[in-house]
Amino acid sequence: MKATAEQVAEWMLEKVRFAGILYQEEAVNYIRTNFGEQFIYVNENGNTSIDKNVKKFFKKLHSGKVAWDRDGFFWGWT
Q: Looking at CB atoms within 10 Å, which of 46, 60, 61, 77 has the fewest?
């Protein structure tokens, strides 16, 4: 069964919900290994990032309860 962007976003939310924090590098590595390369890309700054559709679903799922820390490259429960 092929993973969907929504399933990846659900995994991300569960990680943040239970750990309180999710580092981008950890998320990228897990997503690449467990969901597939199609959910990863290199952004304009040369950083490995998570597919925009995944992030769109993630934002919809957390409804403002998670914040991105640009300096630390992680999401944290607010």
A: 46
